[in-house]
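User: I've been trying to design a sequence by hand for this structure and keep getting stuck. Would you show me what you'd pick, starting by listing the structure so we're on the same page?

Assistant: Good idea, let's start from the same input. This is the structure you sent:
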């Protein structure tokens, strides 16, 4: 199995945990908790900032004793927009499940000057991107222009069955602003119905001297898988009959999403 693909550890409790150390990079952390009714999960952010995303279900949240009440409610990530909660560095958060809950914990290096805030569903409306079989539906949870975090970027995408996404291929692995930003990225995949799958390719440009690619992996992803994107292009193709969902977490030295398109596929960008 590809080292970039992570299968869930189980069905309940902490089913995913990606740290900068385990991923071999510097910025992005990601975890998923599958909680039964009444179950609690809590943590201190330390030097990181966190975005708590209710992938499904409903939970009550507190941050440093401040009650944010019950949030969430969608039955699955394919049913409506997400509720989320931003937690700054140096804070303690707690979530208590109200029924079954799937909670994603997205993290990146923090900085002083930010406070906790709820991000209700609809804060950033879902937008269709692309055309034809490249149409997908994007909800920015924490976009680069909201000024609400130090380094964390969070977005979720619905890719209809038979469509492509994160496509035409683009990358963001060079710290070369304003042309391109360096961003590590995780993809958390879900499918409807759950037995569906998709293909994700993670690859770099060919070396001019050897003609070889330093990284080139084609990954079959199933429901609940996480894909690590340390560098390179990373398109996704959902198979016919199964809608795909993914939750992206991105972070790097600058909170900016500036990508570079694969030059051989640049002709596809008209209208997409």
């Amino acid at each position: 199995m590809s080292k970039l693909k992570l299968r869930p550890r189980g069905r309940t409790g902490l089913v995913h945990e990606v740290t900068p150390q385990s991923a071999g990079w510097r910025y992005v952390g990601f975890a998923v908790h599958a909680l039964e009714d009444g179950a609690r999960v809590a943590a201190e952010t330390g030097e990181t900032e966190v975005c708590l995303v209710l992938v499904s279900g409903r939970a009550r949240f507190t941050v440093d004793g401040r009650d944010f009440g019950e949030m969430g409610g969608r039955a699955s990530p394919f049913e409506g927009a997400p509720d989320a909660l931003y937690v700054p560095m140096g804070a303690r958060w707690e979530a208590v499940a109200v029924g079954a809950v799937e909670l994603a914990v997205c993290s990146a290096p923090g900085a002083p000057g930010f406070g906790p805030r709820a991000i209700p569903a609809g804060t950033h409306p879902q937008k269709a991107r692309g055309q034809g079989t490249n149409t997908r539906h994007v909800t920015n949870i924490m976009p680069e222009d909201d000024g609400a975090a130090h380094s964390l970027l969070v977005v979720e995408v619905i890719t209809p069955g038979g469509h492509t996404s994160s496509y035409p291929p683009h990358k963001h692995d060079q710290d070369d602003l304003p042309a391109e930003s360096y961003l590590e990225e995780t993809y958390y995949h879900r499918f409807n119905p759950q037995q569906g799958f998709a293909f994700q390719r993670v690859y770099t440009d060919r070396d001019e001297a050897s003609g070889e690619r330093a990284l080139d992996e084609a990954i079959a992803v199933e429901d609940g898988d996480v894909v690590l994107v340390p560098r390179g292009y990373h398109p996704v193709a959902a198979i016919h009959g199964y809608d795909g969902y993914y939750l992206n977490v991105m972070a790097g030295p600058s909170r900016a999403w500036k990508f570079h398109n694969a030059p051989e596929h640049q002709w596809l960008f008209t209208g997409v």
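That's my pick for every position. To get oriented when you compare it with your attempt: The chain has a mean pLDDT of 96. The chain is about 0% helix and 50% strand.
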